[in-house]
Design a protein that fits this description.
single chain; 102 residues; 3 helices
Length: 102
């Protein structure tokens, strides 16, 4: 196996571990931030949104790839969307943390 192939496999393995850790962490944050009585919604919402993204993202990124003259624009769009989502979660978590009375 070539060094670049092993490096690629290592990066895919690292990415897979990060994705596996992200799922339970997101659900835990949702449960922690959920108002009393909304725990079931907080448990189901990340899964439902994640499934919807898996349906829509390939079509959206395919359209971006087909319309863009350069290589890798779809990766930039996906990365930007990830950063926007992370920033929105951080802002929501920060604003919700100030709402705690206890």
């Amino acid at each position: 196996a070539s060094a670049s192939g092993l490096g690629f496999c290592g990066l895919v393995l690292l990415w897979s571990v990060a994705v596996a850790a992200e799922g339970p962490a997101l659900v835990a944050v949702g449960q922690e931030l959920a108002p009393p009585g909304s725990e079931a919604t907080a448990l189901a919402l990340p899964r439902a949104v994640g499934d919807a993204v898996y349906i829509v993202a390939p079509f959206l990124l395919g359209t971006v790839a087909d319309a863009s003259p350069g290589l890798g624009v779809e990766c930039a769009v996906a990365g930007a969307a990830s950063l926007v989502g992370a920033a929105a979660l951080a802002a929501f978590a920060g604003s919700s943390a100030g709402d705690d009375d206890g």
